Amino acid sequence: MLLTNNNDFIITIDGVKFSLKLTFKVLEKMYNLINDSDLNLMFRLKAESPFDLIENIDNKENIIALIYCYADGKIDKEDIEETINNLNEIEYKAIKEIIKAATINSLIYTEDTKETKEETKEKETFDDYYNYLYLSAITQLNYTKEQFYNTTPSELKQLLNNNMLHKKNALIRTYIDIMNARNSSNQKVEENKTIKAVDANQFFDMI
Question: What are the residues whose beta carbons fall under 8 Å from the beta carbon of 91, sequence distance 6 or more?
Answer without folding.
Answer: none
